[in-house]
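Re: magnesium ion structure - here you go.
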Amino acid sequence: MSRIATIEAFALEARFADYFGGTQHVPPAFSQPAAHFRALPRLGQASTLVRVRDTEGHEGWGESWGLPLPQASALLVEKLLAPVLKGAATEPVDACAELLWTCARQYGHDKGFLPEAISGIELALWDLAGRRAGKPVAQMLNPQARERIACYASPVPFLDRPEQSAAAARAFAEQGHRGVKLKVGRGVETDRTHAAAVRAALGPQAELMLDANGAYGVESALQLARAVEPLRIAWLEEPVAPDDLDALVRVKRNSPVPLAAGEHEFCPAGLRALVERGAVDVLTPNVSRCGGIGAVRSAAACAREHGVRLALHGVGAGITLAASLHVLAALPVEGLFEANRFLNPLRESLTQPVLSARDGAFDLPAGPGWGVTPHPEALRRFAVSA
Ligand SMILES: [Mg+2]
């Protein structure tokens, strides 16, 4: 029987300052692309990759979200969680994940770096299982897995003028995307003006999503929802702070446009609560934050039962991207993936092959496991020490 031999973490970072020739040259659209970067500007991209090796010499790769401090998840993976699984059978993966949750419950398990660390290990175990079986993970989850996974492009960040937002949205459409997400949270009238420009640029058919990243209170969120209703909004995402479920429910009861949330829920119970409280029309978990494949599948089942749409959050590096496509391909009801196009060298050059959308959808990566592998040289290049 295959048993877990080692679990290692790789804290990785790509700083925007290195791409723009110094911190002072990073454009505001990168350092503050959305409302939630007002407290701590966006400095770059980060990720914590996880490698599990078994006693028979196989390995698998996972990813913990990592932003903004990839060393935090790395420490939790190696020092707290790896000892829990050392010597355990590599499958079933759900049994390993349950051991990790059992450990984590002692330490405040349901938000932040700890569930992200669990997610990275869980994903690595799925990749390992796929590689051992010689099958794509999607095939292991569902022999009838689909080959194409629908997506939308994100984000149109905070840009100064509505014409600039329109041009950014048009560029996404010209790349074949059929849906585009605009960042909002700059006041109702500014948001409405930019959204109107984007809708005009996209035409009536494309899906237009808005993401406020928790910028508003209940009343101002409803003002925004009413102001943009004529623009046929597919959903308004995180209109209020993600830790205030009651406020989100109040917005939902009165909003004329659909609501989305879920990227700040870190375990199956939190995602279930969003659905069961009637807080969302669209659930948006991130596979590298919420517990991995098992957690997304359970959230998807709950969403389906309540008629809620599933659209996986797409921020992350190459393993998150591939794992998201595999789990979406295997779900019984078609979901949607956020094709994040924000500058991210960890998504574009850390893993091979690089996955890109074509005509509004991704092809499921071929090959065993995720079908993508980190490049050893890139692991060294992006490594960040504690
Ligand atoms: Mg979002």
